[in-house]
Amino acid sequence: MVDVGDKGESARSASARADVRFHAAATLDVLRSGRAAKGDVLATARIAGIMAAKRTPDLIPLCHPLRLDHVAVDFAYLDDPPGLRITAAVSCRGPTGVEMEALTAAAVAALTVIDMLKAADPWITVSDIRLLQKSGGRHGLREPPPEMMRPSS
């Protein structure tokens, strides 16, 4: 584990995303209509993402436990191809960043969507899990280069 004992605390934030792709447009219709057999997909995925951010040090070896100040998980429907974009934002005041917490939140929210909709579509995929931005510490705001933000095929 990296020693952060001598680092000063600063406001830290990070956001990440994950794309969930459905095999059929009918799955997106099930999601939008709220007719999923297991219940409210987006509410469940949001709670799962928030819980995952808080449990990141339990899931990823050598991650520092951090006192998170805020976690948000948001969704946007994708029409072509059909799917859902999940965005997670995390902030804290601490000696190290919250990138892993944001990535974990987005990934677990995406896996929860799969679990909630697998009866309607067993071929759902998750792609493009990526960090969107991070801020805090000695480097301030950092964003990936534009070529990293293009969707993969």
**Which percent band covers the strand fraction?**
25-35%
CATH topology: Alpha-Beta Plaits
CATH architecture, please? 2-Layer Sandwich
Radius of gyration: 16 Å
Which consecutive residue ranges, at least 5 long each, have pLDDT under 50? none
Strand order of the largest sheet: 2-3-1-4
The biggest sheet, with number of strands, parallel, antiparallel or mixed sense and barrel status, is:
4 strands, antiparallel
- How many structurally independent domains? 1
Number of strands: 4
Count of DSSP H/I helices: 4
Determine and state the CATH class.
Answer: Alpha Beta
Short descriptors:
four-stranded antiparallel beta sheet, 30% helix, alpha+beta, single chain, 153 residues, Alpha-Beta Plaits
